[in-house]
Amino acid sequence: MILKDLYQKVRKTSVDICAPLQIEDYVIQSCLEVSPPKWHLAHTTWFYETLVLGRYQANFKEFNPEFNTYFNSYYKSFGKHWLRDQRGILSRPGVGQIMEYRNYVDQKVLEFLNQSPSQEALEILELGLHHEQQHQELLLMDIKNIFSVNNVTYSLNTQPASTQRTDGSWTFNEGVYEFGHNNDGFSYDNEGPYHKSYIHSFELEKSMITNGDFLKFIEDGGYQKELLWLSDGLTYIKENNINSPLYWEKGSEGWNEFTLYGKQPLDLNTPVSHISYYEAQAFALWAGKRLPTEYEWELAAKTLQEDTQAFLEGQTLTPTQSLKGSLWQWSSSSYDPYPGYSREAGPLGEYNGKFMCNQRVLKGGSFATSNWHYRNTYRNFFYPKDRWQFCGLRLAKDA
Amino acid sequence: MILKDLYQKVRKTSVDICAPLQIEDYVIQSCLEVSPPKWHLAHTTWFYETLVLGRYQANFKEFNPEFNTYFNSYYKSFGKHWLRDQRGILSRPGVGQIMEYRNYVDQKVLEFLNQSPSQEALEILELGLHHEQQHQELLLMDIKNIFSVNNVTYSLNTQPASTQRTDGSWTFNEGVYEFGHNNDGFSYDNEGPYHKSYIHSFELEKSMITNGDFLKFIEDGGYQKELLWLSDGLTYIKENNINSPLYWEKGSEGWNEFTLYGKQPLDLNTPVSHISYYEAQAFALWAGKRLPTEYEWELAAKTLQEDTQAFLEGQTLTPTQSLKGSLWQWSSSSYDPYPGYSREAGPLGEYNGKFMCNQRVLKGGSFATSNWHYRNTYRNFFYPKDRWQFCGLRLAKDA
Amino acid sequence: MILKDLYQKVRKTSVDICAPLQIEDYVIQSCLEVSPPKWHLAHTTWFYETLVLGRYQANFKEFNPEFNTYFNSYYKSFGKHWLRDQRGILSRPGVGQIMEYRNYVDQKVLEFLNQSPSQEALEILELGLHHEQQHQELLLMDIKNIFSVNNVTYSLNTQPASTQRTDGSWTFNEGVYEFGHNNDGFSYDNEGPYHKSYIHSFELEKSMITNGDFLKFIEDGGYQKELLWLSDGLTYIKENNINSPLYWEKGSEGWNEFTLYGKQPLDLNTPVSHISYYEAQAFALWAGKRLPTEYEWELAAKTLQEDTQAFLEGQTLTPTQSLKGSLWQWSSSSYDPYPGYSREAGPLGEYNGKFMCNQRVLKGGSFATSNWHYRNTYRNFFYPKDRWQFCGLRLAKDA
Amino acid sequence: MILKDLYQKVRKTSVDICAPLQIEDYVIQSCLEVSPPKWHLAHTTWFYETLVLGRYQANFKEFNPEFNTYFNSYYKSFGKHWLRDQRGILSRPGVGQIMEYRNYVDQKVLEFLNQSPSQEALEILELGLHHEQQHQELLLMDIKNIFSVNNVTYSLNTQPASTQRTDGSWTFNEGVYEFGHNNDGFSYDNEGPYHKSYIHSFELEKSMITNGDFLKFIEDGGYQKELLWLSDGLTYIKENNINSPLYWEKGSEGWNEFTLYGKQPLDLNTPVSHISYYEAQAFALWAGKRLPTEYEWELAAKTLQEDTQAFLEGQTLTPTQSLKGSLWQWSSSSYDPYPGYSREAGPLGEYNGKFMCNQRVLKGGSFATSNWHYRNTYRNFFYPKDRWQFCGLRLAKDA
Fold first, then answer.
1. Nearest CA of chain A to the CA of B83: how many Å?
2. What is the ipTM of this complex?
3. Which of A165, B136, C258, D371 has its CA 20 to 30 A from that of C90?
């Protein structure tokens, strides 16, 4: 697809994702991690305006200079920014004005593309598209959280999927392998450099853990068995009274789960989602296994010819069994720099590098990830406590 | 005015106050004290539905039973309620649905009024009207706060007023006087019983303290003079970096104040507003005077034939010099029960009595108070730290 | 008693109160309200050194200039002071050095008294003695708290007292009465000026509420009956999981209470102690009565010839039934200035006036109060949430 | 050295470290990370009592069963334990009683050693010795913190050392190397299993960064250059007003540093210590280098015949230039399990494994580490924010 078409497609998808929202829904920050949907729509626009047009388009005039404060997420390179935990008190600019902002920037970007821009500018524009696709996933995560508080069903005329589980594991042999992105095509800086690492023999399960599996853990008192937990995890679940995955609720008739199709009886065959790293780790210990490292997962993904259909372009907003899509999978790896990585100076260096502390890598993609956005080398990252993202777990063990 | 007309007028005023809002503005809780405007519109409606129709109208059917959770403010008598600090994460019901709710209840109330309801029911309906007028004032306070964050001008086609100051004081002699409401007409339970109290001779200033007066306090280092402050007040201003009234901002050209007419250069003649009890007390000590007690203020108000024009029906949303309206005035009195007061059992007992701790009485009314809602015996109350209400100060001293 | 003897007696009592302590006990700040015992011993000494010797004795040389920072409690007039919540991290000066400090200052004070000091100096010295007696009470409160954490019995070779209850009430007629201290002898500034107030007819119970009475409240679900509580009180007990008086503990054999005689089975006849204002108020509402105002209590105390034996010089460290001693009694009155009160400039003005916000008056005295320190006009004050002081409750009602 | 002698030597060292303390110093918890010195003395004793005698000595009688609650640090396997942040409110058992406890357990251990105990028991006893040596280091860290608050000089009749810096780097070639402990002699479980890892070519500096180096970073505005910092680190230093290493203080005559020899003018040649991982990382980025991984550091230590004299048995309590001792060195590695590691069931599994989240590995040892306790494979770990340990930094770069 040519870049211009791709740009328009990506831009349209963000707006489409918000189709089920009322104006009031666009404004809500339902918890500290969530950003209001209208903020995502504006911030992704700000990215092109500031990092592409503002730097490469002569005589470019910003839509509104104040937006730089509101819609800069965290780039110290671009001056003061609105505090993340205060995004939910911004009623203005309103949704209509943000749509105008999007249209203004879109028009300017399309004009810019007609002017034979430099390769450097095009690369940053491409980064902007990937950036927007990340935010599409955040949009859907955040909308789910907002809708769970307000008990709203998100409906895109799709159906919950039926799922299938495959028993057994894949086995991999020890040795030196190469990892990371080889610079053939787009990648984020944190995926490189391409480098060798020594891998020990291991097995990776063919299926992700299901709601039914996780329910057994709960019914066996897993949340109360203190020896299963990381020390920080135990403190966290106690302080926050956590005793089931996010969005699970025990009713008089049994467990329910809030989904993008509304509140539903818990489907035992569906892969479990919305668990923290702490819960994933405790489950693995309880099951006598462990989480895979990010290298192990990547080796499997590069080796296996597995489906990649369970992405945003798919037919359902329910997790299904899939290696590469459907749900991000917690790895056991801390989110640290790869050998030889160095943070770029300036704003692009703020994109990934400054977050390399206290977080864990998740591999794969989810039903909210665009197919075009997926890479085997992708390193997603969240704090161990985070649960509102579309994540699940797949177990491994030493072979 | 007959009750039916009065009901319709009060109901219309709440909606009119919100006329300058966009949909997005209705949803915002800009700080913990603020409630989203749409919440006020719904809660005032819930009050009639639950305390009048639900108890006195046969076969009444609620508009939506879930609203009882969302829009019950704090009445333990009516079961669980949504937490106050979580009101800003409710996008639903939306503004449109709340307007339908208002229309539904209004129609049912008007039908009910045609059925010769009991005196008891009528009295609670009247309470509901006063309740809604309190919330009209809260609406305007909260909108001002939301608009200050978003830098929006609230315009009702009125003009800032020019103000006038009168020097000098009124003097009152010591003796036993009677205070509180004598049950001739409507009052809240906290205004009674009518009772005697011994008053010592005192003087009350004819004007409220102005922005110009307060600026002198600031310029004299008042916020840094630790001996002027109550111990709790000193802790509070230090922890919150408070060194001017709320909405004041020092720019390169001097002080500005955010008003309902937008950000304006500070008008030195305007009565100072948006100060906490702590600031009022420190100012009074700095000025060598003190705040009046609630009894002193009430005695003056009952004695003097002063203007009562500076109310919601007035021509401006700027404070002006006025004894009884324009700005609520901090008294030095703790909000405690009057002699002989006892808390009514049931929901009405929750209206005032349970708040009689840690708060201070404010007397008068403000430009956001309805004239019909004003009483000399009115006991408004806020925490000593609160500053977002339309409050100012008037000094007194021993005679 | 001549002042010199009195000085020596008061000074000795502070040290005597600490006799049961090990060195380690002197250092502990068991909760934010508590100060380490050695801090009390040093702070009371600092008071004479700074407010008497430092200001009235020529060529006086401080024991150690750094002590001014450590042992100034909160007097902004004397510069920076160590933060209250950090007193428990001071190991130095040690107990031995503080005893040397006491001896040094005592010797200097006694020399000073031999030099015919001015009346002003003598008055501040007298204030210092009262100040130290307040701290003797704090010492015992704080030691009790420290010992409760460490499960240590405080034994002064005394016995728990047996108690007696008297049914019935005293009745008082309405009218104008005079209150406060008339300046005949020592008083704190907050007890004056002597002034008139109008009192409505009331009854005051002859006995304080007992543990047995309070247990009935608990067993009737008093802590769960939300309508009984002040709004702030309900929040407070929920956030802190409070469901019995401080130091009560439900064991397998029934309720126990930690006392200065160690953990004991709850004595139902003993007056209940260590309850907050919130609990006192909820109990009163449950009992269909109310707390007395500070004026009502003072009128009773001035009128009645009641025992004053249950003070520090008594035979027991158990509360007994007594009007004026044994336990401080919560009044319903907010701690506000009396008519005509003005805060003195300088350090003495910091003694009482700056605390006149958010606190409640307690009247009487306790078994930890010196008899010489007691006055009918005494206005003790604590925050509504405070429970570690020796306080109880006596009910009143309108007559 | 035979085990019995070693036991006695280790036990004596803990007590010797406390020689400069007054009784009051033993009780203090000067910040949340610090434990009172007497707690360390008791906890190390509890370890032998509970994990050795209680499990392997027939008919063993505990010194005092309550001590299990007070002196269990965090072993969920042994039931409820006193909360870590409440250790500073324990005055009892006092220092004398804890010394009796030590003597009691020492006598029982020595008797036990005379009874030909099982190999398993001996291994846990050996673990206990290493455990106590860890706490000796904690003791000195915590005493330094307590003494800094109280401005006390810790003197063991030693002198500050003069230091020497060596310019240049060591270079290492890429390849597969083996890491971790090979089970020849004692190690903690987290040091194994012995395993291969692929290393990329790198250089490691011969000297640690000095105070003088770090001062240049400060003077260049390093703490204010937002782009140098990890996102979490920037938040942390802003919230805690951190702008120099812990114990540095800028006086009118220049920078001072609180040391175990008291407050001293900053010595520019001494290796910088008491910096967080965040500060280490920002410094490295500023210097155009990076921190070494734990593997890189271990490879250097195994390869080089460097001094190991700067340990607890040395002549000074000042950091000097040394690879393996003197100061723990922040690695860039997250504290995660080695390939093949599995947490042991039961209490020993709680020793290390449950802390493998959110922490970073430090390599080496310090002047507070016993020589016998040092291993190249040692994995010390602290949170990125921690600064009170004896840590410094040594830079690396890609070769």
1. 13
2. 0.96
3. C258
